[in-house]
Amino acid sequence: MITPFNLPWFVLITLSFSLPFFIARKLEGKSRKEKLFFVKWFSIVSALLWVLYKYLLSIDPNFSFVFWKELPLQPCNTMLWLGIIACILDNETIMSYGYYIGIPCALLALMMPESGFISVSILSNKAIGYYGTHALVVMQGLLFVSLGLCKIDYKSAIRSVVFFIFMAFCAHVVNILLRVTVYPEATYYYTFGFDENFLLRVFKRFIPVPLLYMTPIFIASVFVTCLETLIIRFLKRMKEVSATNRFVDRAL
Questions:
Q1: Separation CA 103–CA 140 (nearest Å)
Q2: Which long-range contacts (CB under 8 A, 24 or more apart) does 126-130 make?
Q3: DSSP designation for 162
Q4: Mean pLDDT of residues grouped by 10 in the chain (252 residues)?
Q5: How far apart are CA 38 and CA 30, in angstroms?
Q6: Which of these, 116, 162, 203, 249, is most buried using a 10 Å CB contact count?
C-alpha cells in the first residue's frame, strides 16, 4: 500500500528528488541543445504515461470517471505538456514555472491526495498513475534546474508567480465555459474551490468569490518561490565549497 508519509511514499519522494541530480551528473558536459532534447522527451513520455493512466482509470469499474473532469488542466497536469513547449521554444519562464510552482503543487498533491487515492495498492493503476505522474512533475521541475536550463534568482521567482496567476486566469475562463456548456462542476486550478482540501475550503469561506479567493495562495507563492531560490543557492554554494576543498586537497 502507498499513502502519504508511509515508507513507499518516502521512497518515492527520495527518488523524485535525487534522480534529477544523478541524471544531471550523467549529462554533464552535454550541450544545452542535447539537454533540452532529453527533457523534452522526458516530458513527452511523462505526458503519454499520464494519458495511459487516465485511459485505464476510464475503464476501471471501481472509479467514477468523468471525461470533462479529467482534462490535463490542473496545475500538475499542465506541467507535463508545458514542459514539452518549454523545451521546444527554449522558454526559461515556463522552465522556472516548472521548478518554482510545479514542484510545490506536485508535493501538495502527493501529501494531500483526493480520497480515492489514499491507501491504495502500490502496484495498482491508481498508485502508479497518481503518485507516479506527480513524482514525474517533481523530477521535471528539478531537471530544468539541475541541468542548468533556467536561472534561479528572485526575478525568475516573481515571473513564475505572475505566470501562475496567468495560468489560473486561463483555467478560470475554461471553467466558466465548461460550466455553461457540458460540465457545471468544472474547477480546474481549483478557481471555483475544492471542498476536499481544508485550506481551499477556508480561503473560499473568507473570500467567497471564484478565483479571487486564491489571493492568499498567490501571495504565499511569492514567499515559497523565494525560499526555493534560497535552497538552490545554498546547494550551489555547498557544491562550490566542496569543489574548492577537493582542489586544495589535490594541490597539497
A1: 9
A2: 126/57, 126/60, 126/63, 127/2, 128/53, 129/49, 129/50, 129/52, 129/53, 129/54, 129/56, 129/57, 130/53
A3: H
A4: 91 95 92 96 95 92 88 91 96 95 93 85 88 95 94 92 96 97 95 87 92 94 93 77 52 44
A5: 10
A6: 203
- Greatest Cα-to-Cα distance within the chain, rounded to the nearest angstrom: 74
Half-sphere exposure of 202 (CA within 13 A, CB side): 5
Q: What are phi and psi of 120, to 5 degrees?
A: -110, 155
The span from the CA of 251 to the CA of 216, in Å, is: 53
Question: What confidence score (pLDDT) does residue 38 get?
Answer: 97
In this structure, what C-alpha cell is assigned to residue 11?
521512497
| Helix residue ranges, H only, the chain | 7-26, 32-58, 75-89, 92-97, 103-111, 125-126, 132-146, 154-179, 198-206, 215-251
* pLDDT at residue number 252: 46
- Specify the pLDDT at position 231: 86
- How far are the Cα atoms of 42, 62, 103, 220 from residue 156, in angstroms, in the given order? 23, 43, 15, 16
pLDDT at 246: 57
Give the CA distances from residue 88 to residues 77, 105, 149, 158, 179, in Å, rounded to whole numbers and listed in that order: 18, 23, 12, 23, 33
Residue 43 amino acid letter: S
Q: Write down the pTM of the prediction.
A: 0.89
